[in-house]
Amino acid sequence: MDDTEQIVIKDLFIEIFNLRYYFVVLLLLITSSAFYFIFNSKPIYEGSLNLKKINIKQNEKYNNFKLISSNSDRAEILEEEEIISITPEYLQELVIDEILDRQEVKNGIAKIILNTGYNFTNEQERENYIITKSNKFQVFKGSEIKNTKLENIDVGDYTVIYSSEDTSEIFNIIEYVLDEANKNTKEFLINKFNNFYNSYNFVRLNRLEDIDRLIKSSIDDYNYEIEKRIAYLSEQAEIAQNLNIVDNTFKVSDINDPAVEAVDEELSLIFRQNLRPFYMNGVKAINTEIDLLKNRKNIEPFVTNLYELRKEKSTLEENVFLKRLSRAFEETPIAQENFYTLNYDITKIKFKQINTSTIQVIIYSILLFIVLSILILFIRIISNIIKS
Known about the structure:
Blueprint: H1 3-18, H2 20-40, E1 45-53, H3 71-74, H4 88-100, H5 103-116, H6 123-134, E2 138-141, E3 158-164, H7 167-242, H8 258-263, H9 265-273, H10 283-294, H11 306-318, H12 320-330, E4 342-343, E5 350-353, H13 358-387
Antiparallel strand pairs: 1-3, 1-4, 1-5, 2-3
Helix pairs in contact: 2-13, 4-7, 5-6, 5-7, 7-10, 7-11, 7-12
């Protein structure tokens, strides 16, 4: 080191010594500002939780739950119907959509406000506070946060994030939102089943009403035809009585008797086509038919479609399809108390401070002091050079 370099270094230290009071004042200002910031600013934390699809195995009852039946079982509603199709993706999308409407978040915040006794000047201020807080609850797909430091995030999974000054609030909000979203999703699935059940049952009941009306109409038609028949027979019996035709005057053998045809071809034709007057059957035969019609006990074989209608009515009243449908649905996890639409562990919420920490403030203060000190020293040196 030559004499010139020694002089420069010596002058630099002399300047630093001469500026010592400036440096002390600067250090005090920066330190006091840093401590003021540390003691007056509240830390803000962010909590995140990974949500995964539930694991559906092939042998589990709720894998693509389908109930398909034929026309006869379902009273001609549809030939085939897929009532509920459950897949991990379907359940995941349902619950995520439920979370994204933020209603559960707002309800959770309102519940915390109620329990902690927040004071608001008016209802509008309270609503604004809830909306502001609810906007801090975010849902990201795995691919959207792939580059973050969050661990165990798979592409296709979702992560919920909520920030607050209170970690217990973060925990409570995330837990409340997921529980409520799961509960509402389960309620949606149950309502979806009930809507189909009620819709089918409504059509079934209407069909039963139609069948009763058709049965009554068929019986009325039968009674009308019997009434007409008896009226006709009564007239024929009266004619036979007046002509003193008591018994049938024609023998069955006469119909195909060649002798009859040889004697009277026209009479033979009457026999063959049964065109002879009905009263010629005789009063005895006609009155016997009238008595039979009046005293008939089993009319079902003679009423059009009565057997078929009563059979269909019996099938609908037994309600086999709806009973099977209810049993099948009750055996699915949807109807169970422990049914969850997503797979997560609430105890694995990860917290991190997202505003400046105490250590960061101290480091930034030291760096600021060094930069400002160098700047002051540089200005002083430049000033001395100019003066000389």
